[in-house]
């Protein structure tokens, strides 16, 4: 299956997004006005509004929003909300706004013109009120259905001419290309802004400046399949910062408007890329839009009913494609910091990107760690490049427990004794910065060795899939066939109020 290939952004080329000064946010009942403050998107009160979006296409040849022949639009909007997304990046071709012949077609006429009789039947069953709407009015009806669920909408001019994006010869690449007339493009944007000016949940088309970037596994060629994943992740993260991430440090909001992977679970490139991308998104607390919602297309690249393996929903649009990988996306939905979220002094979260969970103290009296939802995390204190990992606020001043390795395959434990010795001094041992390791001079070298004649023990997930243990560090460097993601833990800064009381340890 061909992934969503975006020629313009394979090299992480920046696009521009403007945030319209109107909109609603699902966490607040009333419509709000959005603006920008330094690197943040904020509401009227100056509080951060984090965009946690999913892409929903309307830019392919029929110019009909995908899925209307599969499920009622209200049901789709409801699923978007139930999955935790507060925003949809809704795509369209500029021709919809500039070609009156196209925009005046009805949904029925356009689908039949493309031989999609079965889709017409599906729309008649699921969304009968759409069939005789014009293509432009049908797009607005989708936006309104999302508004009824208090879902924000970013209108994305995805292409000029309706069709799949992107290829080397599609004529949509940049100004001056065959189908990219700059004057027509500006006219189309102005038309869309006027057409949707009375729709309060449309928050992105023009106004305040936000930079936009895309990043997929194929942005890095075939490196994920052939090289050590730590080395590739480190290089990809540096490239992201060099080409886009630096903007946040300069006070500009950055929107990762497309990222995603094959959700079936068998793609080596996607399985290695996605935890790395999630770690980058979490560390920088990015606004983002996952590609993509749709489980299938009415028509894509001449194929009727094509499956979309990157889709959150399955082919029928009736359920989630993969319940196991969904938490990896959902873990990024919650803002970690920013205006209005300075609820606590900065602390670290031990984020495990391959599961989307975070390491926190287990049940009282066990002195061990387990993976929990990240809104149930504990506050950790850590000072790179090497220091103790201290569970902050868990005891009286001066008695904060530290994390200690006990040996291969054994649970990492919390205690107040021997804090600062070799087995409680943690360092980031791999290029990715996600192997959290101690040196164990009594153990034989691990798979990659620790230097000094001793082995290195890294945080790992136990066989039960929940407990946090230590094991010899795997895949630190060199071996391109080795998968290190189970041992990846990212230290991420947060200022959110803790949802649970810190554990009290003896």
From TrEMBL:
InterPro entries: GH. This is Mannan endo-1,4-beta-mannosidase. Residues 1-26 form the signal peptide. Keywords: Signal. The keyword RNA-binding does not apply.
